[in-house]
Amino acid sequence: IHLHSHLNDEMFLNGSYSQVNAFTVIGILILIISWFNFMNLSSSGFLKQTVSTGIRRTLGAKKAHIYGEYFYETLIIYFSAGLISLAFVSLLLRNGIDIVTFNILPSRFIFLAGVSFALVLAGTLIASAFPFFMITRANPSFLLKDKTGLKRGGVSGRTAVVIFQFGV
Using one digit for the tens of pLDDT, what is the confidence trace for 55-81? Predict the structure, then answer.
């Protein structure tokens, strides 16, 4: 009713469906930019661990174990951020109803929490896969010497990510 009703003598002005769509697209673009920013920062952090990754690979660590390490580290960061954001939303909805002038039903909040959890998992899979593939494509002996071509190739990849961020 708020977006599509066009009756005479309504109490309030109707909202704009195109504005809702525009803000949704802007929110999705901000989420994508934050994912790329996190992947950029985490890949530079994981590249600092090339020697330890090379040692683990030389000693026989499977790629699944190395990916698991990246995945769980990223999951802890994403899950913590997700819990903090849900706590802020819950606090705002409880104490800031006058500010936002709308109310979200508890069942809808549970749905939003589920969507947030799915985004946390998707973001974790994507963000942990990026540095993993960068590290595992290198030869373990080069990782031990810390003379990988990853730094040169990673910089150009990171530059492309930064250009994409600024473009958006």
Answer: 877 788 888 888 888 788 888 988 898
What secondary structure does DSSP assign to the chain, as a single string? Answer: -TTT---TT-SSPPP-HHHHHHHHHHHHHHHHHHHHHHHHHHHHHHHTTHHHHHHHHHTT--HHHHHHHHHHHHHHHHHHHHHHHHHHHHHHHHH-HHHH-----HHHHHHHHHHHHHHHHHHHHHHHHHHHHHHHTS-HHHHHHT--THHHHHHHHHHHHHHHHHH-
The pLDDT of residue 104 is 66
Locus of tokens 């977006």: 3
Do 132 and 61 touch, CB atoms closer than 8 A?
no
Provide the whole-model pTM. Answer: 0.62
